[in-house]
Amino acid sequence: MKDFLSAPRLAELVRICTEMYAHGWDERNGGNVSVLLDGADIDGYIDTKNVLRELPTGFSAPLPEGSLFLVTGTGKYFRNVRYDPADSLGVVRLTDGGKTAQLLWGFTGGGTFTSEFPAHMMSHAARLSVDAENRVVLHCHPDGLLAMTYVHDLDERAFTRTLWQMETECVMVFPEGVNVLPWMLCGTNEIGEATAEKMKTARLVVWAQHGIYGAGRSLDETFGLIETAEKAAGIFLKIAHLPWKQTLKTEDLRRIAAHYGVTPRAGYLD
After folding, report:
1. Which residues contact 252 (CB under 8 A, 6 or more apart)?
2. Is there a catalytic annotation at residue 116?
3. What is the mean pLDDT of the chain?
4. Which of 120, 225, 243, 256 has its CA 20 to 30 A from that of 138?
5. Catalytic one among 12, 27, 116, 133?
6. How far apart are CA 199 and CA 176, in angstroms?
7. Quick one: fold of 116-270?
């Protein structure tokens, strides 16, 4: 049996956690990531018969029995992940209808999965219902997007159109737009359910005065998705107080979408 510390999937998550901290998106123990694993991701690395601990999830996860996840731990600082991955991360298997997570690897200091675990599992289920290849859910606190929720209308169409207008790539990268939730208490099943509902129509869900949830097929794709939206939010904040002499018009956005073969969210370019 090889050491899971040398597994490619673990190396990817360690790299992304390090990048997220470097970007300033995950201060202290803020933010969390979960990756749906295939059996091949752990085959030869983890003995699936050896359950280290059983962790109650506090909810019923709407996912197949035995689903495997690599997930960040509660209270763990992203800046420390690369130094001791086995303490900050864990591999869990859902059982008992998702009410129990069996720890198969990690959380060596006696920790457990992120407090946002219900929101992650519900979001995974929602994304899988529309795209069977979506395997990553990533939550973080990017400065620009968070600040934008204080000064911009939270209407999803208006929020999306502003981001699309900030740089040409946005309508290409997230043509389905950005969904937005008003402030809600984090770490609850309620915000998890609300986020999952929003995840059915977009891969990005902004939590007002808190941060953002992103979903995708890979860690790189999901990181890049948030990175693009955050870049656009930063540009908006730099120019919001200035008179605009030009911007991307609706017709420009249509031309971009047509040229690159993407379909913008219905009604957002009317």
Report:
1. none
2. yes
3. 96
4. 256
5. 116
6. 11
7. L-fuculose-1-phosphate Aldolase (3.40.225)
